[in-house]
């Protein structure tokens, strides 16, 4: 293996971000001698991103920490189509106003992880609608389309998966990979961008952009993909029984975000500390070596660091104190998720209202399995009615999910 010298490549390797690369030796040499602008694209399909996007956000953070320039590309143009990569069906198409509202909302997330400004290594946010919306169809087909082979496009895993399952893949979506390749070409021309990064499912799209830039402009650009982040038990990163782990606090309370990290599997603690915090590597090595009950202290450090980065120091401290009071003192902390009730509510509706269950059937199964509690008492009757007065009532689902019923 070639000995790399740039701070960028060394950092990404040491912290476990690299899955695939194109000409990593040339990229390392470039990064060692100049500022490298690099980008990742995000489609604004919702007002918030979730934890599944966090490794990509952290990748941009590492780029900036290494002395390079992050470019956050919002897919205001491609978001009107939707990325078909490894999806079982087409995404719902958003209108112009909905996309713009989501872009404004998502920007607030990136401002917590990156430093924006006009400096040489300050982050910038751009929208591919600025160039994609202005394309003329015939000139685009003539100038750009000629560089793409349909045979090769059909060979990409993201397309083959849909076709092998005999699932519909519209012509609209098939064009997505051409448009993403064109994004790389445009950013190379407009911002001197030399690097595209993304998840492992974006490999084919990144390679297309690299080849298009080389064929049309003779420009050498590079690509890096990250590994698919799964938990030690094989689950998908960021999925819980109550749904997606959103990065915006208006879609997920601080305590729930903190508790997500606190509930990390023992086997994932070191890996997640490297990927999702700025803790020094020697400190991470010490923490992941802890055994038995001591590993819980490492999980608290992970939860505090990850929450502080995304939600702020005050939110992390509040969530940690709520957890301490709830689990160590047996009292109900003030920042637990809450559900406002007028008079009384059934245990089934309470579990749904707190976000612990997605349906009445799921709530009933939780109760039948002995996983629901009101206060310290296990619930066995799914018809239980809870009266809510002046004092909040604590409801729990399993050992890790707690919430409050509050009188409205």
UniProtKB/TrEMBL annotation:
It catalyses: tRNA(Tyr) + L-tyrosine + ATP = L-tyrosyl-tRNA(Tyr) + AMP + diphosphate + H(+). CDD domains: S4 (cd00165), TyrRS_core (cd00805). The keyword Coiled coil does not apply. L-tyrosine binds at residues 39, 176, 180. One of its GO terms (biological process) is tyrosyl-tRNA aminoacylation. Its main location: cytoplasm. It is found in: Cytoplasm. A motif ('HIGH' region) lies at residues 44-53. InterPro entries: aa-tRNA-synth_Ic, Rossmann-like_a/b/a_fold, S4_RNA-bd_sf, Tyr-tRNA-ligase, Tyr-tRNA-ligase_bac-type, Tyr-tRNA-ligase_bac_1. Homodimer. NCBIfam families: tyrS (TIGR00234). Catalyzes the attachment of tyrosine to tRNA(Tyr) in a two-step reaction: tyrosine is first activated by ATP to form Tyr-AMP and then transferred to the acceptor end of tRNA(Tyr). This is Tyrosine--tRNA ligase. The lineage of its organism: Bacteria, Pseudomonadati, Pseudomonadota, Alphaproteobacteria, Sphingomonadales. The gene is tyrS.
